Amino acid sequence: MRVFVTGGAGFIGSNFIRYVLESTSDVQVTNYDALTYAGNRANLAEYEEDPRYTFIHGDISDPERVADSIKDHDAIVNFAAESHVDRSITGGTDFMLANVVGAQVLFDAARKAEIGKFLHISTDEVYGSIEEGSFKEGDPLEPNSPYSVSKAGADLLARAFNVTYGYPITVTRTGNNFGPYHFPEKMIPLFTTNLIDGGTVPIYGDGSQVRDWTYVRNNAEAQWLILNEGEPGEVYNVADDNEMTNKELTYRLLELFGLTGEEADARITHVQDRPGHDQRYSVDPTKVHALGWKPRVAFDEALESTVAWFRDHESWWRPLKEAGATQRRGLNA
Ligand SMILES: NC(=O)c1ccc[n+]([C@@H]2O[C@H](COP(=O)([O-])OP(=O)(O)OC[C@H]3O[C@@H](n4cnc5c(N)ncnc54)[C@H](O)[C@@H]3O)[C@@H](O)[C@H]2O)c1
Questions:
Q1: Tens digit of each residue's pLDDT (9 = 90 or more) over 193-204
Q2: Which of 46, 214, 285, 320 could form a disulfide with 175, with the two C-beta atoms 3.0–4.6 Å apart?
Q3: What is the total count of domains within the chain?
């Protein structure tokens, strides 16, 4: 099987490729990535010489390069995207170009090349916020940030490819991921690296927002299973079922650094809330459970090993922080 993975130099894509190459012996992976600020070939450095792995530097919104590169593949998995909500608030155009136009170009090229399987990676954010209960795959999309709108746009395009062309694109909507190689502008790696440095952690607003934290390795297993066993053209929610407020998560992290009580409180700063900040994301993963997926690594173990990974890989994240990876944190602050 030859799998064409886009955005494989980013956080989830690189974890997905590592999972596939570790758990199979007969799968060839092409990693097609534009190497934006979030892409880093070093995320898969150990596979650079592996004959099963090929890297191509390219943009998913470049029709000629995409058409040329996807030839002879059996499946496509599209992780490539602009992914940081804060950046979409200060500059949404790049998000529309990569996440909507890029998806259109890729879907179209795949359809014309008759690639057998297409898995498009989306997010639980496309549903918008929910006070109680959990969104199911058929629920309406009510995205609230430029990022989630761009992701919803591609989800709807996938729907159109199914209906208009009879070319089935499978979509997965995932909760907030965390784990190794997570770019340090995002909450868990930002807080972890700040704490390694003995610093403080900036919580948006009162920290009452709820997210369903999903370990990236568990997610990689789910995506691989859905690619291979899922019903083409269907939508699948994926989440570990670890809902907690940002404040609760922050205290769990502080505890891993031996900080509790007043010592922990002293490390928290409250910055002005993100505009349009969704209160709660929650998806119902019954459908992917029915395919046979359950999160293998429990939350506490996953968080502990993630913190340990950042402690052990300072050479990976230090240059990113020094280059300003965390600058946008605290919009309006
Ligand atoms: N991180 C999360 O918690 C989360 C949750 C749900 C869904 N998702 C989705 O999962 C996917 C991967 O997210 P991530 O956190 O790994 O993102 P990331 O920002 O870490 O990585 C994105 C990768 O895509 C590449 N890329 C961006 N634009 C491109 C383009 N036009 N052409 C080719 N490559 C391009 C970047 O270079 C980078 O390697 C995205 O589609 C995102 O929307 C992420």
A1: 999 999 999 999
A2: 214
A3: 2
